Amino acid sequence: MSVTEFDAAVTEFSTKLRAFVRRRVRDEATADDLTQETLLKVFRSRETLRDGQRLEAWLYRIARTTLVDHYRRQRPSEELPETMAAESVDEIEALRQALALSTQRFLEELPECYRVPVRLAELEGLPLAKIALRLDLSLTAVKSRVRRGRAMLKTKLQECCRLEFDRSGKLIGCERRERCGESQKRTATERA
């Protein structure tokens, strides 16, 4: 697609693009601003369009990204009240260690067919293909067992604790649930 054809196609599509943006924002002025921002991104990155036949999908993807960026910018960044001060680094580290110990304990409670692949993947850091070779299983079977084992661990942890994570996925809070003891009792009963 030549530059002239690209410019003509984008210009022709700009009305539909603006309508797409307008349906997703509160007012006309914001729709105009975001449409203009989208078009600037489109013209600046025209070299990244690999297939001229997919121009419309490419334009919508850029518009969606622009809308997501807009809504992310709208979140207020207010100061937290002093009563919600963050835990100290030592408290967070102690929390992570307690969670690691609980995870290891719950890992030992998993059936062996899930426990071994999860331990090899998570604790020893082996790639799934090497685990498959070591356990003489197919790669599909190892993927399935690791996925199911992780899900079982997650369920056990969620039964025992309410976990809080920050935006990057780091653990920032944990509250023990009353039924945590029930989970342990049930597991002990299941083994007997």
Task: Indicate the topology.
Blueprint lengths: L2 H20 L5 H17 L10 H20 L14 H21 L2 H12 L4 H8 L3 H22 E5 L5 E6 L3 H12 L1
Antiparallel strand pairs: 1-2
Helix pairs in contact: 1-2, 1-3, 2-3, 4-7, 5-7, 6-7
Family: Belongs to the sigma-70 factor family. ECF subfamily.
Protein name: RNA polymerase sigma factor
GO biological process, one term: DNA-templated transcription initiation
Characterise the protein shown here.
- One of its GO terms (molecular function) is sigma factor activity.
- Belongs to the sigma-70 factor family. ECF subfamily.
- This is RNA polymerase sigma factor.
- By secondary structure, the chain is mainly alpha-helical.
- The chain has two domains: 3-73, RNA polymerase sigma factor, region 2, helix turn helix motif (Rna Polymerase Sigma Factor, Chain: A, Orthogonal Bundle), CATH 1.10.1740.10; 86-191, Winged helix-like DNA-binding domain superfamily/Winged helix DNA-binding domain (Arc Repressor Mutant, subunit A, Orthogonal Bundle), CATH 1.10.10.10.
- Helix content is 69%, strand content 6%.
- The chain has eight helices and two strands.
- The chain has helices at 3-22, 28-44, 55-74, 89-109, 112-123, 128-135, 139-160, 180-191, and strands at residues 161-165, 171-176.
- The protein has a two-stranded antiparallel sheet with strand order 1-2.
- Strand 1 (161-165) and strand 2 form a beta hairpin.
- Helix 1 packs antiparallel against helix 2.
- The longest helix has 22 residues, at 139-160.
- The protein starts with a helix and ends with a helix.
